[in-house]
Amino acid sequence: MADILIEDYYQLADYFQAGCKPISEWKVGTEHEKFGFIKESQKPISYYGDQGILKILNGLVGLGWNPKYENNNIIALSLGKQSITLEPGGQLELSGAPLGSIHETCVEVNSHLSQLRSVSEKIGVGFIGIGFHPVLKLDEVPLMPKSRYKIMKNYMPKKGFHGLDMMFRTCTVQTNLDYSSEIDMVKKLRVSLALQPLSTALFANSPFLEGRLSGYKSLRSYVWMHTDQDRCGMLPFVFEEGMGFESYVNYALDVPMYFVIRDGNFINAEGQTFRDFMKGSLKCLPNEMPLISDWENHLSTLFPEVRLKKFLEMRGADAGNWSSLCANPAFWVGLLYDENCLNEAYELISDFSINEILSMRENVPTHGLKTKIKSKLTMNDLAEKVLKISKKGLKNRKIFDSSGNDESIFLEVIIQRQKECNSPADKLIELFNSEWSESIGKIFEENMA
Fold first, then answer.
1. What is the DSSP letter of 235?
2. Alpha-carbon span 355 to 3, nearest angstrom
3. CB neighbour list of residue 405: distance below 8 Å, 6 or more residues apart
4. How far apart are CA 342 and CA 305, in angstroms?
5. Is 360 exposed, middle or buried (0-12, 13-18, 19+ CB in 10 A)?
6. Could you give the CA distance from residue 369 to residue 142 in angstroms, rounded to a whole number?
7. Rounded-to-integer distance, Cα 272 and Cα 298, Å
8. Distance CA 65, CA 57 (A)
9. Which long-range CB contacts under 8 A does 151-159 form with residues at least 24 apart?
10. Which of 178, 172, 159 is nearest to 232 (CA)?
11. How far is 395 from 388, CA to CA, in rounded Å?
12. Could you say which of 16, 36, 87, 286 would form a disulfide bridge with 245 (CB–CB 3.0 to 4.6 Å)?
């Protein structure tokens, strides 16, 4: 499939159409990132060395993971349908397998973190789950040996103020969900895009910048707003009449490309678009037509708040600890995988104009759950309504663990946040100003992944 030559534009939309699955085959996928640090000094870990990422990756190979190489360096691992990859600044990411329930997802997360600790603790390394690195300056972050990141590092400063911060100093948790048809995709994409600012508020967990308070509850989200307007953001066209697979194709065709991969080499395609590629006029590969693998690679370099592939990726939340990593997929599955709840959520978001949604996204990084929306309402008021829908959706699924708990148990941590109007960032700010006496070192104990 990946080597099929693209001969007409219909194949691009057909790529998304091929992602449609019957309800019986819907799965839950999660991806989450974390920062590694040397416990004794709290400094970042580099790729090489006795306390480096390569050492950790080799340790995981010893536990059965299979290495993937680039220029003789291990850059990823795989085990079944799971993979572990390196983000630009050494953030370690688990891309989980497509699983049948949140219960299975949490078992997977727990197993991954347990394996990671068993390897990293032997060499004095820990990991922290937080949305933006709390202490590191940009020039202190090591670059990982992956060719695509060298291209991105050179390109990012040309497009926004915080592109390099995004690459090197942010971490997220992501939920990946299926759709059954083009109509189902559109409804889910609209709901999830409109509620992405709420996800940011509930999971806000990045209030620090270089050892001090940044003025934001989700600095990660603010950074993404100033990364690259060509490929990031809320996608207003999604809410327009006629939205479908072709609409997303037209958007993706005109987003500037980063690279093309040929024979394992990354060829810089800066400033050119996939539309150029479709015409055979790509300057770096003159007269050559794209392959489906090129389309897949290009789609992976688009970073909207919700991304369409052969599934939908929810991308608006800060990284956090184990309970947050389980709550995030639970939140979205409850909203999107029960038809009645999806319709209820769709009705709810239909009350918001695109300008109101954009305003929420703009203000949430600073104000979190206290963000004002519509007259006297706040984001926390919206959270109460949405969490009730999500909880109902999870209960309707009737999927239980061995103790008889349904999946709604994983929502409890964010239901409590809503009741207290208190995100992880709010708690960190309070600790920083009180028990920690404005000393950031304790963060590496409080937010251990």
1. -
2. 41
3. none
4. 19
5. buried
6. 34
7. 12
8. 9
9. 151/258, 151/259, 151/266, 151/268, 151/270, 152/88, 152/258, 153/88, 154/270, 155/258, 155/270, 156/227, 156/228, 159/227, 159/228, 159/229, 159/230
10. 159
11. 11
12. 16
Q: Which two tokens stand for residue 135?
A: 């202490």
How many helices (H) and strands (E) would you count in the chain?
Answer: 18, 15
**Do 325 and 32 contact (CB within 8 A), yes or no?**
yes
Q: What is the DSSP letter of 437?
A: T
The amino acid at residue 237 is F
Kindly state the tokens that stand for 154: 């050179």
Q: Which residues pair with 154 in a beta bridge?
A: none
The pLDDT, as a whole number, for residue 449 is 62
CB atoms within 10 A of CB 131: 32
* CA–CA distance, 156 with 147 (Å, rounded to integer): 15
CA nearest neighbour of 138 among 168, 108, 174, 183: 168
Rounded CA-CA distance 234/196 in Å is 9
> What is 238-297 written as a DSSP string?
GGSTT-SHHHHHHHHHTSBP-EEEETTEEEE-TT-BHHHHHTT--TTSTTPPPBHHHHHH
Alpha carbons 46 and 90: distance in angstroms, whole number = 7
Place of tokens 């997303």: 248
> Can you tell me the distance from the alpha carbon of 248 to that of 176, in angstroms, rounded to the nearest whole number?
17
Report pLDDT digits (tens) over 70-119: 999 999 999 999 999 999 999 999 999 999 999 999 999 999 999 999 99
Complete DSSP assignment for 345-391 = HHHHHTTS-HHHHHHHHHHHHHHGGG-B-STT-BHHHHHHHHHHHHH
What pLDDT, in 10s, does the model give residues 177-231? 999 999 999 999 999 999 999 999 999 999 999 999 999 999 999 999 999 999 9
- What does the pLDDT look like over 359-405, one tens digit per residue? 999 999 999 999 999 878 999 999 999 999 999 999 999 999 999 99
Locus of tokens 């727990």: 110
- Which residue, 321, 299, 362, 357, is CA-closest to 171? 321
- At a CB cut-off of 8 Å and minimum separation 6, what does 324 contact? 129, 173, 203, 205, 317, 413, 424
| pTM (2 d.p.) | 0.96
- In one-letter notation, the amino acid at residue 378 is T
Question: Domains (ranges, CATH) in the chain?
Answer: 10-255+302-446 (3.30.590.20)
Pick from 442, 446, 382: which is nearest to 418 by CA? 382
Mean pLDDT of 294-317: 97
